[in-house]
Amino acid sequence: MNNENRNEEAVSPVIATILMVAITVVLAGVLYVWASSLAGDSTGGGLDTYTFSDRDASGDMGETMDDALVHVQMTQGDGLSWAVLKVSIVVDDGASYTCSTDATNECTIGEPADGDKSWDTSEEITISESGTDLCNGENGGCDVVVTLTKIGVGDEDDKVIATVTAYADGN
């Protein structure tokens, strides 16, 4: 019989250590590229949080088409420019109406009295009818759902920032 002395070691310990270090460095590089691309995809610039409160607008409602319905107050959040804010309402599960600051739509927004171009914390707006009798108060009042949407600028999408459910009391 032929007895040959064979060296059956697969890889020397030095080469195995070098291979393990190389694999670790490559994996770390891949993870770094992946994580930096995730961070680069974030275009929001932060999380905007807003809170609002509501209350009934004073006064009786009737057959007129200019009744004040509800007041909405911003209680938390950064100022919202009127140029990028869309206010819409739904009265008693009916049609949706977009409100404007002038009398061109079915409802109007009474801006805060300070006259600046934004809605800031602690300021209140009044939502009123404008040429359409949305709530005449016959059943004691109306449910008014106010949706506040921040209009996207550039390649941003529009974003609903709040939905406020209010009650417009007929009395």
Strand and helix layout:
Layout (H helix, E strand, L loop, with lengths): L12 H28 L10 E6 L11 E9 L3 E2 L3 E7 L4 E4 L7 E4 L7 E2 L4 E6 L11 E10 L8 E11 L2
Portion of residues in beta strands equals: 35-45%
Question: What is the approximate shape?
Answer: rod-shaped
Biggest sheet character: 4 strands, antiparallel
What portion of residues is helical?
10-25%
Using the CA coordinates, give the radius of gyration: 31 Å
Q: What's the number of extended β-strand segments?
A: 10
Arithmetic mean pLDDT: 83
Q: Compute the number of helices.
A: 1
Low-confidence stretches: none
Taken in chain order, the helices and strands follow as HEEEEEEEEEE
How far the N terminus sits from the C terminus, by CA atoms, comes to 114 Å
In short, what is this structure?
This protein is α+β, with helices and mostly antiparallel strands and 171 residues long. Helix content is 16%, strand content 36%.
